[in-house]
User: Fold these one by one.
Assistant:
Number 1:
Amino acid sequence: MSRSAVAWALGAAVVVAGMVLLPSQLYTGQVRVVTAVLMFVALAQAWNIIGGFTGYACFGQVAFFGIGGYATAVLMEHANWSFWAALPVSALGCAAFATLIGLPLLRLRGHYFAIATLGVAEGMREVVTNLGWLTGGGAGITVPTVGGRGTAWLGNDGFYLLFLTLAGLAVGVATLIARSRFGYGLRAINQDEDAAAAAGVNTTRAKVLALTISAAITALVGSAYAFQQVTIYPQRLFDVDITVIMIVMVVIGGAGTVLGPIVGAVGLQFVSEYLRQHYPQEHILVLGAVIILVVLLFPSGLTGVAGRTGLLDAIWAYRL
Amino acid sequence: MTSFLQATSYGLLQGGLLAMIAIGFSLVWGVMNVINLSHGAYVLLGAYIAWELHAAWGLDPLLGAVAAGLVMFGAGYAVQRSLINQVVNAPIFLTLLLTFGLQLVLVQGMAVVFSADYRSIATWYASESLPIGDVRVPSGRLLAFGVAILATVVLVTFMRRTRTGLAILATGMDRNAARLMGINARHAYALTAGIAAALAGAAGALVGLVGTFSPPDAARFTLLSFVISVLGGLGNMYGALLGGLVLGVVQAWAGQYLPGTWVNAVAFAVLVAVLIVRPSGLAGRAFYEARVEAT
């Protein structure tokens, strides 16, 4: 190992140890806030793989979140599986689903892909709502956590560790992709897909694989979220706002970097939590204004501004 | 048979109104490659303007539609010139995010100002129904349909017969070449956005005439505009009219013959199917297929 690799490993170990010990220093409410932050770190990083690296603006990412959550709830409720069995199986099932829809949809480019995936997500919500015998329909489904069935609820600290693990997994996968030949292929597709194909990148395989990995991570998070919430509803699990929040976080932080989504998720989640507590009525309005300002002021993301270009250059970059 | 005809006629009338909403959306998408997620909020702003005018002075919503269109033209122009033009060359998710933020502000702002209660603009004629054969047609919907078709024809004529309209289309085809010909692209884009907002706002007044509305409806109007634009081929104005009518009829049939809320899934199933099988739209080739992307 080179010296810098040792330094990175040590730094990562310190961060992980700090994060594991953190809940003992916080109140219950604060633990929940940090847990939500970790959940969005994982989600933003998952979207970053397809949207940031590959440049395919997936506006239906919440479909994978909802499928993961509902697969877990159905397996635990109807098949009496334990959560620990349902979690990986939900992710694998969702990965298979993503591969299947990815093959036709990833032929579409730009807005067409964005809208087709949005259509898939909205359509999945309606499918789940209308399969009442299986999913409980609009009335929701409850994950068994008591009475000897299912898996006992993990408690606030337990879910903190679960989402910390998922966030670590997402960041780890994104780091590996960023440094691999596969990751360079994805970036090449982002820059110019035809040129990437001409240079020998198997673009179809790379794009479908990127979507599949992204979907699997998102489904893991959805699965854990369903267990944490206990009772889930189609309106919430397939809420298009969840997709948008992921995208906002990635864009704020800097798309196509590993650090960007982490910065964006932590920043935006704390800001929106602050707004929710101080302006309970108008917090969504303020959030909208924050999104507008961020897009206008940091079009290449916070890490982009800190990295290469100056603030003013970044603001003027995309002007008409 | 009567219920089938009834559903079909309802679908056609509703489809015409949806087409009027979607045409501006399709135009903006085609000319500047921007998907305006706040388009549905413009519809509701128009509805509230007409509602306020009706409540204050008893102004008929058909006249209110004109007022709403004028106000929304100015709003759409200003938003494009001051906000969206700033990031119009950015990767697509930036423009999507910007307009999504705008949609949040507008919808939540309307909810704060007007509350989330459902409203409608009551007129003496809206619920009078005309019998045509066995089918009964509400006259409010028929009027709204007529206005929607008229607005579409006027818009297409304007775009194809006037210098301003042709300048907008030229900017959409090749912005750099258009600029070399002396067209002010910033102004052309803002005009396009203004026209789209004006049509959406006027359609909003008609929405208030034929039914109820509430701020959260904005997202539904935006989504249906998506579907119709794709069905019609993006930027293709008569295509959008056709797409609106097709979608209206398909939804009406689904509402008639499918149980539960499957009707909501139909629009998205149609959307995804059309995108995969025929991405240039039902009406053949999209008008801007040959466009040159500005860099």
Number 2:
Amino acid sequence: MVARSPIRARGPVGREHGWEVSTTARKGGLELCDLTPYSKVLVRAGVLSKAAEVLGCALGLARRAPDGTLVAGTGPGEWLLVSGAGTWPALADEIGGGDPTALTTVVDVTHGGFLIRLSGADSRRVLEKICAIDLSDGVTPDGAVFRSSVARIVCDVIRDDDGGVRSYLLHGDRSAGQYLFDAVLDAGSEFSIGISGYREKEA
Amino acid sequence: MIRIPCPNCGPRNSSEFSYFGELGSRPAPDAVDPAHWRHYLYDKKNPAGWTTEKWYHASGCRKFFAIERNTLTNDVKSGRPFGVESSSEESS
């Protein structure tokens, strides 16, 4: 049994944690990478709940937990947790047993969505072609999160700079994955965008 | 282009939203007669000027909220979540 991303793996193909992934080497510069195998957990809870306190992240912001999990406040009372493939975010267990009177839902959406990373100095210019949000550092600095229309697809966009290089994570419904991947590639063609293979651990 | 001020996400292009009509208080279904219910469903004020409307941010926070919009100029005064009253809001 092998799990497949909605985005067709290009170039040499390998397996990581039961997922079929592209093993194309990184070339540097402007890159698009399919990170769908990463664990993605959706949390819904009240903004004043114990869970919100544990997650420690307001709407529109992202932070890294001590175990490396990316916590992103994607909506009012809604968070997306992203951790390495085959792992379960420790935070997701912590919030489950908090307040028994507050309704908290924790749903694994790993196989229900896509996750791609657009990184490189020109990533802002690429994203600006297909997204109407102001991507300047003043409005969306590193750690900013928003949900908006990207190439007419509703996406969670997380500014998550990678080793000082401007980088965006895009997360959305699985059915739109291949389309959006191709749309970003198309938008980035004038900036010589390249495809890089799956990365187990990020910089 | 109309920019709608979402109270959660900030100003966004109107293409991210769905329009849900004039804002009015929903009567209790078991406490009104059919004529009153029909009036609530279908009779709209449709003013030429400022009105309070209900919008849904489908491509963003996925929340309903109210805005005051001028139907002649498409100027928008404010956006606010439900439960927060506006001084100029009309009751229907």
